[in-house]
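haha ok so turns out i had the wrong file open the whole time. this is the CORRECT one, sorry everyone. sequence first:
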Amino acid sequence: MSLMITDECINCDVCEPECPNNAISQGDEIYIIDPAKCTECVGHFDTPQCREVCPVDCIPDDPNHVETKDQLMAKFLALTAK
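then structure:
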């Protein structure tokens, strides 16, 4: 499952540099996560790094992008194959 950032985001800038897939970027008002790039850090880390550093706990699962660990691993492999 991809992650999302809610409107509780305080734009503290700590999540963006932690994302190994460059899935997090500044949106119009808050940071956003590109579901095509988010693997919940599968393939890189045991836990999502953005969640680890978020001081306001505003990064839940995205119910619109449900994926299994196998699907996340396949996405990781596709993103890193070059």
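The mean pLDDT is 96.
again sry for the mixup
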